[in-house]
Amino acid sequence: MKKSAFAAVLVAGTALPAFAADGEVNIYSYRQPDLIKPVLDAFTKETGIKTNVLFLDKGLVERIKAEGENSPADVILTIDISRLTEAKDGGVVQPLKDAKIDANIPANFRDPDGDWFGLTTRGRVVYASKERVAQNDITYEELADPKWKGKICMRDGQHSYNIGLIASMIAHDGAEATEKWLTGLKNNLVRKPDGNDRSQAKAIWAGECDLALGNTYYVGLMLTDTKEPEQKEWAGAIKVLFPNAKDRGTHVNVSGMALAKYAPDKENAIKLMEFLSSKEAQQIYAEQVFEYPVLPGAEPSAIVKSFGEIHPDKLPLTDVAKYRKQASELVDKVGLNDGPAK
To answer: What angle do CA 274, 25, 280 make, to 5 degrees?
Structure first.
């Protein structure tokens, strides 16, 4: 089926967008469109190739499976290692060996089989109240210390950002120690996990908690938010602490890309992927989305640099990914999302 016929295809009762046939590349994305628009606009300006984005907050792999060989997806963009491995394990990507991409993206940020490639990283850090938290360093383990009882807030424990962190704890310390840590963390929560990372910064600003888990890039987005300027106040109330900076390093996750299995415009898809790995694109990500580039020599934005220096955990992301299921099971086992015992 040609792309001009896509609008006639129905998947799960939803019509596919009417993608045109020539000079375009079709992206299925777990990343919100506004976060990738600057870099996609730059790609179009440089190449003349239009990009079409279908944003899916869930069910991306299932959708491509249902579409089968008729899928219009050329490139998949994802938000973390779990989504990348999910796409690989789901059989909706194809391996790519490309000299430009391999030269730009270090080996530890790409799949050994060429099924996915990391683009940017973000630290899973601790947001701390500037007013009420005197210390400037912390460990993830310390979040279970009773001294923080009733002072920590966080988003859903089953969210992929938190599952990635918990999986890394299992990889480092084992399941038994991680279960004990999760129980301590649960006991220190001020309420049931709720909201998103920005909500946690707001809660600190409002005096509802003193510490929270959050991604680094949200701080930059809040500090520069012109549509909701109150978010600048939320971000201004917190300082970023990089956990375990003095030992194994801070847990990092990736945004990444993969070549869709049945990419109808493989040539343009590869052009886009090469561009996304380039220094130009990496700098746009750094300046516009406040993430850390994976390309050696590309610098994070001045705002991100102001948080301090990050020392990333060197644990391979593939090692993190293999413990994600166990991490999810532990979240349920300890009842993390039930919040602290009353």
So the answer is: 35
